[in-house]
UniProtKB/TrEMBL annotation:
Coiled-coil ranges (or none): 365-392
UniProt lineage: Bacteria, Pseudomonadati, Bacteroidota, Bacteroidia, Bacteroidales
Protein name from the UniProt record: Outer membrane efflux protein
InterPro entries: OMP_efflux, TolC-like
Location of this chain's protein in the cell: Cell outer membrane
Gene Ontology CC entries for this record: cell outer membrane; efflux pump complex
Family per record: Belongs to the outer membrane factor (OMF) (TC 1.B.17) family.
PANTHER family in alphabetical order: OUTER MEMBRANE PROTEIN TOLC (PTHR30026), TO APRF-PUTATIVE OUTER MEMBRANE EFFLUX PROTEIN OR SECRETED ALKALINE PHOSPHATASE-RELATED (PTHR30026:SF23)
Length: 438
């Protein structure tokens, strides 16, 4: 038996109260785009990890600089001295001279590197390049994270707009259902139109529930990424949709991206690091010169075994040449040269990728801008079309299917307009990401 209007509407309103009651249990927060970016840069765990890597790179620089400082060591040696045996004529008639039972040895050694073939200099430069790479990786991740947060933020725009449009559509459907019941009772239409209208309301109700669940899911995702209470419902700043986002030319974006894109700068630093590794490998084949000094206090006297302390010191230069490096480093040198070629290839691939991304984002931006203007007119036309179809249906000049189609067309036009507006914003910031301005 079909539901009467009052019964159906009571059931429907009860179902709508459930999501709103659930919403009321959670706090909400209106957050602007600047606040989103600022909090994301501060709280995102990936950026925390990047900052730790920067600190580690800073420690490696300090460690590399200590190679310029002298090596100083202190040695202490003590122990039991065994009984020596001396043969003065062959192996016959051994004698055992008197010697002390204990020996001691105290040493201080000093070594100051003077020339290492450039190994120290290139090691410090390597650590500095690694620190630059860590900072650029942080900047690259920060830009990617902002773009990721923006995508979720704009998704909230669409979901809240969909929620409002669906609720407005439900109100219209309820009014329409009352008229349909009245027309049925007057015998103008059949029960089929009543059933189809009630089914439409049921579908709208389910769509509202699904939309509100999606709002909670997207809010939770952003809450977690921003380090906030995951039960907090975030509300985007709707004034962002009314702002104008003018894009530049393709050539301007490409040129700026080649110079300023953190990802591009990162690859350049990696190429410099590969070139530095060639010099560092070559330094292994060069001679090494050091200033050395030492002082030793020992007992007994090693030559006479007299139980006396003996102190001696020395100062000089130490020169060594690693001949084995001439053949051991050959393959490492070849690998280092090939790595430079590989990084230059990667740099060229990145240039190609930038050109493709800028062109795609720029075309999508213009496309979305044009779509917004077209859809504004489409929304007005869809509203007028629905008004006409409703009047015609009420006068029995059109069937219910035509009216429902006009209703769906109006709903889709509004949602498409919101999607186009958010796409304008996203493609604009995508272009800013490409030129290193995000």
């Amino acid at each position: 038996m079909p539901l009467r209007p009052i019964d159906f509407l009571s059931t429907f309103f009860l179902s709508l109260c459930i999501p709103f009651t659930t919403y009321a249990q959670h706090d909400s927060l209106r957050i602007s785009l600047d606040e989103l970016f600022a909090r994301g840069a501060e709280q995102h765990l990936q950026l925390h990890a990047d900052r730790l890597k920067e600190q580690m790179a800073e420690e490696r620089i300090r460690d590399a600089r200590t190679a310029r400082m002298p090596d100083i060591s202190i040695g202490l040696k003590g122990g039991v001295l065994g009984q020596p045996v001396v043969w003065q004529s062959g192996l016959n008639d051994p004698t055992r001279p008197d010697t002390p039972d204990w020996q001691q040895n105290y040493t201080v050694d000093f070594t100051q590197p003077l020339y290492q073939g450039g190994k120290i200099k290139y090691s410090i430069r390597k650590a500095g390049l690694e620190q630059d790479i860590a900072r650029l990786q942080t900047a690259t991740d920060r830009a990617d994270i902002k773009l990721e947060l923006l995508e979720q933020y704009l998704n909230l725009f669409s979901l809240y707009k969909q929620d409002r449009v669906l609720n407005r559509n439900i109100e219209e459907s309820e009014r329409r259902l009352k008229d349909i019941w009245r027309m049925k009772e007057e015998g103008i239409i059949t029960n089929n139109d009543v059933l189809r209208s009630e089914m439409q309301l049921t579908n709208d109700r389910l769509a509202v529930t699904e939309t509100r669940n999606n709002i909670r899911l997207v809010s939770q995702r952003l809450d977690i990424l921003l380090g906030m209470d995951e039960r907090l419902l975030l509300i985007p700043d709707t004034t962002l949709l009314e702002q104008t986002f003018q894009a530049g030319t393709y050539g301007e974006y490409v040129d700026r991206a080649f110079l300023s894109d953190p990802a591009m700068q990162l690859i350049r630093k990696q190429t410099e690091l590969a070139e530095n590794n060639i010099a560092l490998t070559r330094a292994e084949q060069l001679p090494r010169l050091s200033l050395t000094a030492s002082n030793t206090l020992a007992r007994p006297v090693s030559r006479t075994m007299a139980d006396l302390y003996n102190n001696n010191w020395n100062i000089g230069l130490s020169l060594s040449y690693p001949l084995s490096a001439l053949y051991r480093n050959r393959h490492r040198m070849n690998e280092a040269r090939q790595n430079v070629l590989l990084m230059r290839n990667t740099e060229e691939q990145k240039r190609q990728d930038i050109r493709m991304k800028v062109q795609a984002a720029l075309l999508k931006h213009h496309e979305a801008t044009d779509r917004v203007e077209s859809l504004k007119l489409s929304v007005k036309q869809a509203e007028e079309n629905y008004r006409i179809m409703r009047n015609r249906y009420m006068n029995q000049l059109a069937i219910l299917t035509d009216l429902l189609d006009a209703d769906n067309l109006r709903l889709n036009a509004e949602l498409q307009l919101t999607t186009a507006r958010t796409q304008v914003i996203y493609t604009y910031y995508e272009l800013q990401r490409a030129i290193g301005n995000l």
